[in-house]
């Protein structure tokens, strides 16, 4: 069967499929023919590789368009962590009230797209792993047009949670209590509504981060994405961006915050130690009006501004207020520094 004959037969078999899906499938098969011909294969060889159009469409109509797993066979006594990996899917994590792990993988717009991937769920010692992998022999195009979703419901127990994504967003839309929490994304955004963990580590390249978190140690970093941490509470907060803006609001004993060209905007309570560092970004630090401090400020071309209610002493690049409880070190090359209450 040559290309023309194959595509005519495929188009006829697609009459029972909705128009949008039919157009996408026709384009996918056209791309396969173009690629095969560019590699030196004949139209007949490509047709044979693709298989009978009627059988392919029949298989798609009979296969489930969602891959769901309700895992009730986990050894909950051994389970200490859940690890989630999905390169291109949006990941949503919630916490349930039972002991099982619930997983649902689907495409929210074109159900056929889920057939490009395989959902794997298994227990590996103390870790329950959830992994979405693209199939090498899939014939539907990946990328444009995909709206993949991976929904995970965690057990009620406070397990360690590790999430790794690339282009998809990561969301925790409801309160989650866990052990150690780590999330890594490349270009996807990350949004956490209310997370209570022993320790938190969030890493993003170009995606924006918005998170309300509590933990003894909270670490968050981006390259070009903005970083917004609100309602936070912990002993130590470590925050870093390259060009993204950084905004932190919460209670910490100690804070380390740095950026190259992004601005730092911090509102911190209960702080004993703060170290703030930028190159060209501005720094704005807001403290409770009763917090005394010693602040050392270093700059080359930036300005220092202060709006403090407590009696203030200034000696060069050093400010003293109240009982001098908080130790603050702020350094910037060309950015301005403002401290207020």
Automatic annotation (TrEMBL):
Superkingdom of origin organism: Bacteria
InterPro entries, A to Z: Toastrack_DUF4097 (IPR025164)
Domain DUF4097 span(s) in chain numbering: 82-339
PANTHER family xref list: PROTEIN FAM185A (PTHR34094:SF1), PTHR34094
Protein's UniProt name: DUF1700 domain-containing protein
Taxonomic source organism: Holdemania filiformis
